[in-house]
Amino acid sequence: xxxxxxxxxxxxxxxxxxxxxxxxxAWGHRVDVLRPGDSLLAISEEVRAGSHDAWVLKTVSGxxxxxxxxxxxxxxxxxxxxxxxxxxxxxxxxxAVIGRTRGLPVPxxxxxxxxERLAEIPAAEYPLVVKxxxxxxxxxxxxxxxxxxxxxxxxxxAGEGLLIAQPYxxxxxxxxxxYCVDGELFATERSSPLRPGQGVRERQVPLPGSVAxxxxxxxxxxxxxLYGVDVLLGPDGPVVVDVNDFPSFRQVPxxxxxxxxxxxxxxxxxxxxxxxxxxxxxVPAGGDPYGHLGFGEGELL
Length: 301
Ligand SMILES: Nc1ncnc2c1ncn2[C@@H]1O[C@H](COP(=O)(O)OP(=O)(O)O)[C@@H](O)[C@H]1O
Ligand SMILES: [Mg+2]
Hints:
single chain, alpha+beta, Rossmann fold, Dna Ligase, domain 1, D-amino Acid Aminotransferase, Chain A, domain 1, 3 domains, five-stranded antiparallel sheet, 8 helices, globular, binds adenosine-5'-diphosphate, binds magnesium ion
């Protein structure tokens, strides 16, 4: 198969997903790696060429990769994950609406484009967790104990775009991070970035049945194939605080081969959105705009 991986600068040196690309190459597939964060792309020509069986996205929220993946989907190419599903979780405000509406245990969520507007949240909702709607990797996530503290923390969040705020879910300080690869679930525990002093060593842990059911439901609700869910074990049961498309899969046994197999299966099954005209009519004859980007040549690594 021919695959195109979109890899953001942030993950340039990470094992995931480049080791997956290497594994697929070792199995005889052709993998091109595009780094949308640091490339000039003849985008209208390259995407229209449609010479890949599937496009795979590993990018940061707000990065340029999603536009490229959406372009690929718009001309009818298969994407991993499905591009609409990625959009549904990349925006944490949107994810909260979809999650709560579909019956997932997601905290009540407020959104405000200016941090000053968060002052209107009733005092009874405190302590709050405030985070950017397009955040990732714990960036700018703040615990706000009372309305007075909002005045101190708020200015640090100016410029972070749309903010969301949720009541703090009381928990042990340890996140349960659950990964789904091809329908199989793996749980790990990791210190919450809000309680870094906790010092829990990241490790695989048994997955409670109640959490497994919720995580499986997350996949159905958002339509994700490869994903991770951050779960907190609160006083009223498991709570979903974050959903990530194509996460790190850290601590998942044999993660590289598992993810590589899942990518192949998804690429074969196809998630292409049908578009008027269809991709076949958009593909120009001949030409290989990716020839110089071949993973085997290692130019972009
Ligand atoms: N409502 C909440 N209550 C308690 N802790 C939270 C809440 N939301 C987030 N957290 C903590 O903050 C961490 C980072 O938030 P998260 O939404 O996962 O953002 P990111 O995309 O940056 O990972 C979570 O892993 C969790 O430990
Ligand atoms: Mg998270």
